[in-house]
Amino acid sequence: MKLFPSLCCALVLTATVNTVHAVPFYLDLGGTNTAKADFFTTNIHATSALHNGNCTGGLCSPDENSSFTESGNGSATGLYRNPNTPLYNAGLNSSWAMTFDYSDLSGGFTNTGGVSFDQGGNIDINFATVLGYDQDSGEIIYGDSIKVAQLVVNSGSAVMGDVSLSGSLDYSWYDAAVDDALTEGFFTTDYGSLFELWENGDNLVWQLNFNITNNMNTPYIGDENEAIRDTILNGQLAIVSVSEPGTLALFGIGLIALGLRRQHKKL
Fold first, then answer.
1. C-alpha dihedral over 182, 184, 185, 189, to 10 degrees?
2. Which of 13, 35, 133, 246 is least enclosed, having the fewest CB within 10 Å?
3. Residue 18: pLDDT above 50?
């Protein structure tokens, strides 16, 4: 296990406390690596269930008394460097794929038409080989799937159709005796893999942004108890790090002060 990532992150984050930073990463596919990226694009099929909506003739819309639950699945479609430069992806969706699935997101609505997500709910990220394509539907045929990360939803909101979800990375489910070792190095940064950073207690989080403007006027179909709407979400998912407001900054400043003191002694 590498022991240096916490130190590196502390030094980087001291100057910008409470600021979100993109963490460039590459994907280690088990012998082949992608280019280093700032984010990857996603295509997700989401199914939302509306509860306590306003319904007329089987068509429903939400108000501030409504709630929703959501499940979905999808895949990564590309790797990019900011602002929008496509990168080498080592055969994404031709020889391998990165897929997503979730089933336990929930939230509510505001009286101004906004959306808020509850804390909790997980999004699983999986690696799979591509076996081919279905000749009738054109859909990808995947081989066995390997879970490589779990994203825990901590917060989320939607304003004017722009949705932002964020949360933490969790590897507590991983068992080296059972799960594939590909997980330990799949997401790798300059400071080590995300798995290593998680083991060392670094405060790394993810952020998923997408727009639902084209779907906002699509009604839910059903009744007041439950109405369903299917949507396709195209978004961007990035790994970000957020510094702790107190201790991390003090720790980093202490390290800098120690270095200056040693330098002064040499003089």
1. 150
2. 246
3. no
Cα–Cα distance, 136 to 219 (Å, whole number): 29
The DSSP code sequence of 79-92 is: EEETTTEE---SSB
Query: Torsion over CA of 125, 127, 128 and 130, rounded to 10 degrees?
Result: 100
Specify the pLDDT at position 263: 47
Lowest model confidence (mean pLDDT) among 53-62, 205-214, 245-254: 245-254
Would you tell me the crossing angle of helices 247-266 and 5-13 to the nearest 10 degrees? 90
14: tokens are: 């001291």
> How far is residue 103's CA from residue 208's CA, in Å, rounded to a whole number?
16
Q: Can you give the residue ranges of every domain in the chain? A: 20-242
pLDDT at 10: 31
User: How far apart, in whole angstroms, are the C-alpha atoms of residue 144 and residue 127?
Assistant: 8
- Give burial (CB, 10 Å; 0-12/13-18/19+) of 89: buried
Beta strands in the chain (DSSP E): 20-22, 26-27, 39-51, 54-56, 59-61, 67-81, 85-86, 96-109, 115-117, 122-133, 140-159, 162-170, 187-189, 192-193, 204-211, 220-222, 227-242
Question: For 72-106, how does the pLDDT look when each residue is reduced to its tens digit (9 = 90+)?
Answer: 999 999 999 999 999 999 999 999 999 999 988 99
